């Protein structure tokens, strides 16, 4: 049997660990609405969720952070039908602590709205689509024809950094490269560990 405390085995384990750590893991926490808290869009910025959803790419592993006064609002995840009709009954998920974090763990469409009566009708809702390399976020129609403006209003960062959406030129290839690096390092590490074990017999 192999000596698991041998210096050669320890060096190989350290090498495998370093190879795994070198693979890029990029998960972001996106604050929904960026500098604004989750709430009814203001008259000065009625399309905030439309702009936000148009200019952010969300992927598996990312999180959505909804900040709001818990005594005045909440966030619910709803079905597509309830999203379109602003039906707040029977939500999939109800979050009401004022600092709600939703983790993206699978591909698909995710529909969010305020849990407070009347807020959804005032455009406080968000549709996120994740998957197939075309991950994006969508907001409800925001005016005649549902067309969005070509540019979003910019604001200085008031607290901490807000994640920047990855560039579209290499977003899918960098994710594939990171997965490939992890798989390759696991295979190489396993093969080398097996050779060491067999060689020490």
Keywords:
2 domains, 201 residues, Immunoglobulin-like, Phytocyanin_dom, transmembrane helix, alpha+beta, elongated, five-stranded antiparallel beta sheet, 8 strands
Task: Write structural notes for this entry.
The chain folds into two domains: 1-25 and 170-201; 27-165, Sandwich (Immunoglobulin-like), CATH 2.60.40.420. Helix content is 29%, strand content 18%. The protein contains four helices and eight strands; from the N terminus they run H-E-H-E-E-H-E-E-E-E-E-H. The protein has helices at 7-22, 48-54, 80-85, 171-199, and strands spanning 29-31, 63-67, 75-78, 93-95, 99-103, 108-114, 125-130, 136-138. It has a five-stranded antiparallel beta sheet. A three-stranded mixed beta sheet has the order 1-2-5, with no helix packed on it. Belongs to the early nodulin-like (ENODL) family. It holds the Pfam family Cu_bind_like.
* Helix share, percent: 25-40%
Instruction: Give the assembly state of these chains.
Output: single chain
Rg to the nearest angstrom?
Answer: 23 Å
- Total strands: 8
User: Outline, from the CA principal axes?
Assistant: elongated
* CATH fold label of the largest domain: Immunoglobulin-like
The percentage of residues in β strands lies in 15-25%
> In which order are the strands of the major sheet placed?
4-3-6-7-8
The succession of helices and strands, N to C, reads HEHEEHEEEEEH
The major beta sheet can be summarized as: 5 strands, antiparallel
Q: Which CATH architecture of the largest domain? A: Sandwich
Low-pLDDT sequence parts: 139-174
Question: In DSSP terms, counting alpha (H) and pi (I) runs of 4 or more, how many helices?
Answer: 4
**Structural class of the secondary elements?**
alpha+beta
CATH top level of the largest domain is Mainly Beta
Let me know the CATH homologous superfamily of the largest domain. Cupredoxins -  blue copper proteins
Membrane topology: Lipid-anchor; GPI-anchor
GO molecular function, one term: electron transfer activity
Main location: membrane
Protein name: Phytocyanin domain-containing protein
